[in-house]
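Notes continue from the previous slide.

Worked example: a multi-chain complex. Inputs as given:
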Amino acid sequence: MGIKGLSQVIADHAPAAIKTIKYEENFGRKVAVDASMCLYQFLIAGRQQDGTQLQSESGDVTSHLMGMFYRTIRMVANGIKPVYVFDGKPPDMKSGELVKRSERRAEAEKALAEAKEKGEVADVDKFERRLVTKEQNEEVKKLLTLMGVPVVEAPCEAEAQCAALVKSGKVYATATEDMDALTFGSSILLRNIVAAESKKLDVKEFNLKRVLEGMKLEMSEFVDFCILLGCDYCSTIRGIGPKKAYELIQQHRSIDAILENIDIKKYPPPEEWPYARARELFQSPEVQPAEDVQLVWKDPDTEGVIAFMCGEKSFNEERIRSSLAKLQKSRQGGTQFRIDSFFAAAKIVKSEPTTAAKKRKLEEEASKKGKGKGADKKRGPPIKKAK
Amino acid sequence: MFEAKLENAALLKKIVESIKDLVTDAPFDCSENAMCLQAMDSSHVALVSLKLEVGLFDTYRCDRTINLGISLKNMSNALKCANNDDGCMIKYEENEGDSITFTFTDTKRDKTQDVTVKMMDIDGEHLGIPDQDYAIVCEMPAAEFQKTCKDLAMFSDSLNITATKSGIVFSGKGDSGGINVTYAPNSNADDEKESVSLEVNEPVNVNFSIKYMNSFTKATTLSSRVRISLSNDVPIVIEYPIEEAGYLRFYLAPKIDDEDNME
């Protein structure tokens, strides 16, 4: 599920860190894609209307191949160079330290249903998404390799590996829906890159440096703040929501200091709370050093793809061929570079605000004040509704 | 307040028509000395840079540096109402709402038209373009360059430019065939307007997308001459001077064979 409510907190406290950009604007960028999350979307969240999945003639599920194939084509046709990063083994937190799995699964399913209703991509729990089978993972790796797209196997968490690639400058950004890519230290996170074209979603770019500036936090403080909000590795202190967590981190600057200073009776931390281990997982995760990762984009092996997709998995040959032609075409005549890779951004230009913009700003300020008051009044746990 | 008057609307018309397909929204930077514009196309491959110095205007008043955001499509519509030789006044007053007023005056008929265009909010990054010396600077008739780009586009998506002391070659190769257009420098030509001049500091060999070049050459109407500046592996500059008191420049990032990670 990434970090609970983080995107909203960023929108509230560091709006300058989020940029909405058109899909095409990512032209010429190399991005690390969290493959495991994509697969989860295709297989679990992306069922057909009747709840079944796409199948080949022999009854094998093929939604993951279909999803991966077309989304990759879309990226490449738009000049994006993807690198897919797969999850390795789960992080070794002792089972006793993990939150109850069954509880989490129920939660995840609920969240999934909700997100589906809204037509959004669900945030996916790091443990939940390992439900994608090994075979399915292998099939996708085979397909991507045939398509000439680099595949990286992370020793542990894919998000962490993506972040390492971004930090080293090998790629521009991490493309994922999981906000914890920021907690792992990805300087740039792109949302909606792997979305279906038909949804016509704009891409949201989160800039970590601006997040930290806007929230006035150091990176280590930001990690602690994310753990307070709720991450995949441990539970949180009851009664502390995003607003309180922000206040506490501003005041005390670390979870240790917060625990020393808050009223433990009012805000009981979980028993044997492994926040320090979670922090360690975020700050020094197990990754392959970026220097050792070779990223090579090759020509697609058209016949290989056809043999696999059409021969084994009964996809329509004509469609696969015409899509592959797009892939081939985008590779001709060298790589088109971006103008902003030669000229650095010198300043931000803001045009004269129109009255509509002025009004919006006033309203935002007013509603922020209003929100503050409302939250103060509504202290205490929410009242449960009787069935 | 901002108020500037051009002797005729044709200049602004030509500028807007030549960039409106490349850039949709434009933030006009107006200062004491000039009216400028910098904007990238949606895929951030090309950059447009316009400068109109005070000297181009009949009257010019700008009380403070101001940035006016406007949709080029709307601006183009407004300018369509004007005849080429109508006078053109651009006016923005802080207290008079969110629009820019274009006043076109036709002295022959004693007619004036006030057209207002709604402004828009634009947030964007301004790129710093370093002053640099280019390996090659070539000047030629703008119409000649336009024809060459058009001809090449029939054969190829890519334009290759090579230049040495002996001349500059534009070439394109595609599935159907190929074309090479060579200009040997002829600065001694009788007619200065028709001459092709070439300054070579270093030989170059660079590739560009022909689609963008063709889009740039819409500005051919602005100027009889075009100046092309390029070096290996940096953006090319296609400049159309405007009456020695301004320019419209297009920067285009090159296509580079990325051999390290492309096999």
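Summary box: The domain at 217-285 of chain A is CATH 1.10.150.20 (DNA polymerase; domain 1). The radius of gyration of chain A is 22 Å.
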